[in-house]
Amino acid sequence: xxxxxxxxxxxxxxxxxxxxxxxxxxxxxxxxxxxxxxxxxxxxxxxxxxxxxxxxxxxxxxxxxxxxxxxxxxxxxxxxxxxxxxxxxxxxxxxxx
Length: 97
Known about the structure:
This protein has helices spanning 45-50, 57-67, 71-76; strands spanning 11-12, 15-24, 27-34, 40-44, 80-83, 89-92. The chain is α+β, with helices and mostly antiparallel strands. Strands 1-2-3-4 form a four-stranded antiparallel sheet. A two-stranded antiparallel ribbon has the order 5-6.
């Protein structure tokens, strides 16, 4: 069995890692809660660490509508999604602390 990077309790963008959820195609999967809307999803560890995903699709789409641009326009421009002080979805160019 290959090694894994322990991510339990970590925060990546709006994702809070709750538990390990097994493996899929050799990738460690993690059960995560989106802090913007409290949805629980299973996310690949590499996607969390690389910044490929920073929030659930619902929060990303909600924020893109507020900006007046499509989700894909913002994603192409390299914009990422993170949490602001009001616990709502917000656009940022950096990860949350």
